[in-house]
Structure formats: structure tokens, C-alpha cells
Amino acid sequence: MSLTLATPHVEAPATALAPREQEALRYIAAGCTYLQTARLMGLSKHTVDAYLRRIRAKLGINTTAEMTRLAISLGL
After folding, report:
1. Pairwise CA distance, residues 38 & 24, whole Å
2. What's CA 72's distance to the chain center, in Å?
């Protein structure tokens, strides 16, 4: 069995995300939990979860590690 790491095929990922989605992604990539992110953004943790689910769906990402890699590559 061989594992390969592939970056998701995304066209202009930063523009595909709403500003609040980018903000949530920035906090998660910085190591904040959903609850910490929610408190920093003044939202419920369920709203943060919804933002992150939308990010995963829009960009074809499955894991938090992939989201973190993407955030770093976008300079968020």
C-alpha cells in the first residue's frame, strides 16, 4: 500500500471563501479549537463547524491537516 499526498485541485481558493470562512480557517490553522474560534469570532461553535464544513465542501478537503496546509499556502 502506498500513500501519496496530493494538494486539492482548487481554482482561486482564497476568492472561493467568504471573509468569515477565511477568518475561521485562519484560527483553526493557528491551532485554535472550534470553541476557541467561536469565542474569538463571537459565534457559536456550531456556526464555526458549519463554516468549516462549507470550506471542506468548496475546496474538496477532508481533514483539518489539509485545511491547515491550505491556510499556510494562502498566507492566512
Report:
1. 8
2. 10
The candidate with the shortest Cα–Cα distance to 13, out of 2, 22, 26, 23, is: 22
pLDDT band with cut points at 50, 70 and 90 for residue 10: very low
Evaluate whether 8 touches 62 at the Cβ level (below 8 Å): no
Question: What secondary structure letter does DSSP report for 12?
Answer: S
Alpha helices in the chain (DSSP H): 13-16, 19-29, 34-41, 45-59, 64-74
74 pLDDT more than 50: yes
Is residue 9 predicted with pLDDT exceeding 80? no
3-state secondary structure of 6: coil
Decide: 41 and 48 in contact? Cβ < 8 Å: yes
